[in-house]
Amino acid sequence: IEQRKPCDTMKVGGNLDSKGYGIATPKGSSLGNAVNLAVLKLNEQGLLDKLKNKWWYDKGECGSGGGDSKNPSKSCSTETQ
């Protein structure tokens, strides 16, 4: 996905790897369950996806979705002779 200028690259294929996130609390702390429940609630409400889109896609330098999703032929072309 094009996210940085000069906006002339594109993603081909799937991700090679994906990482998760964690929040540390002291061992035995009552905060662990509260944090888990809060994160699950945010996920169920779709807020985590909204935040991901806001910071990873909507803030890109190449437009809202990167590339030209309406006209994929502009994103990639081939020549045959």
Automatic annotation (TrEMBL):
What keywords are assigned to this protein? Answer: Receptor
Q: Does the keyword Endoplasmic reticulum apply?
A: no
Annotated segments matching region Disordered: 60-81
The cross-references to InterPro entries, in alphabetical order and at most eight, read: Ionotropic_Glu_rcpt
The lineage's top-level taxon is: Eukaryota
Which spans does this entry mark as compositional bias, Polar residues? 70-81
Q: Which SUPFAM superfamilies does the entry mention? A: Periplasmic binding protein-like II
The protein in question is named Glutamate receptor 2
- What organism does the record attribute this protein to? Homo sapiens
